[in-house]
Structure formats: structure tokens, C-alpha cells
Amino acid sequence: MRVLALVCTLKPSPAKSSSDLITSQLLELFAKEGVDGETVRVVDHDVRPGVEADMGDGDAWPSIRAKLQAADILLVATPTWVGHMSSVAQRVLERLDAELSETDDEGRPAMFGKVAVAAAVGNEDGAHKIIADLFQALNDTGFTIPAQGGTYWNGEAMQGGDYNDLDETPEAVASTNATLVRNAVHLARLLEKSQYPAA
Q1: How many angstroms separate the CA atoms of 118 and 64, rounded?
Q2: Residue 48, helix vs strand vs coil
Q3: Residue 106 to residues 63, 144, 197, 199: CA-CA distances in angstroms?
């Protein structure tokens, strides 16, 4: 079983990123559940705008898409910018739109049977809306969302500071991270054994 983490920070590598930090924490928990993980910092790749699976020569999305097709669980991690997900996360959702027209041999949308979870971090409010927007789009695309499949951290309003700046992970976040991982793995294993009905 595999999890693909798409880190949607606006900061290219090797800059420190709170989205990358919470992703690393989640992947450590997935590893404890026997699930292999891979991280892609999307901004490091030339993911072109558009809603097709391949937007032409030089588009990096097809290689990321191949990793997604091989994964059982998708994690989308995003910072909060002016109360919304990052533009990079929005682009990921736009590119996933192409999956609506892709089907398996039995007529099911290609993402049926895959689980999606989300993480949002920021020093302003907006995490609940971001996760709601991510879940709506991912569910529309065919992903299945587990119970309590979202985790987040918001800093104190109007005070600055980042998740990266914390001396330790708050207990509420650590507990939510653990629940997210347990439920995602449980659901992915159920779907692996019993796929949705054919179209």
C-alpha cells in the first residue's frame, strides 16, 4: 500500500515549509501502519495550467499523475493564503479534473477506490474552509474521504508565526494526525478488498 503526498507550498525546495513539516509527520505515521510514502513538492515541477491529463511538451503533471495512479492514498497539504488554499493546491485540483473522463475496464472513474486526506497550516483562519473545498473537489473526482480525514494547525490570529516555529507539535494536532492516518489506512484496505460497483 502506498501514499502519495502532494505538498502545495509556494516555497521551492530547499526552503523550510510548514506544509512539508506536517506532511513529514503524517508520512511517519503512515510508515508505522506499513504504508510506503512519497512526497512531491509540486512547486518544484512545471505543472502547467489546464484541465487535461497532459498539457503538452514539458508539462510535469503526467509524471506526478503516474505516481498518483500507483498510490492507494492521496494526501494534499497546503498552506493558508488569505483564507484559502494555495494557488498550487488549486492547480492540483484543476489538473485532477481530467480524471472525471478517465475510467477503468469496468466503467468506474479512475480514482474510485483511492482514499484522499488533507492537511492545512497557516497563521490565519481558513483551515476548515480549505479542507471542505479540497474534500468536495476530491470527492467529485472519485476519491473516498475517511472519517476525520483532515488535519490542520492555525496560529493565533494576527500574530504571525508558522507551524515550523513550534517547539513541539500540539497534542490536539498530533492526535488528529494519528486518527487521520489510522482511518485512511483502514478505509484504503477495505476498498482494496471490495471495490465500488461497476458502472
Answers
A1: 17
A2: coil
A3: 25, 18, 9, 6
How many Å apart are CA 57 and CA 18, to the nearest integer? 32
CB atoms under 10 Å from CB of 157, counted, come to: 8
Report the mean per-residue pLDDT for the chain. 96
pLDDT digits (tens, 9 = 90+) for 98-144: 998 999 999 999 999 999 999 999 988 899 999 999 999 999 999 99
52 C-beta neighbours (distance < 10 Å), count: 15
Task: Give 12-27 pLDDT, tens digit per residue.
Answer: 999 999 999 999 999 9
Using only C-alpha atoms, the chain has a radius of gyration, in whole angstroms, of: 16
Buried b (16+ CB within 10 A) or exposed e, 87-97: ebbbbbbbbbe
Q: Are 88 and 130 in contact (CB under 8 A)?
A: no
Domains present along the chain, CATH in parentheses: 2-193 (3.40.50.360)
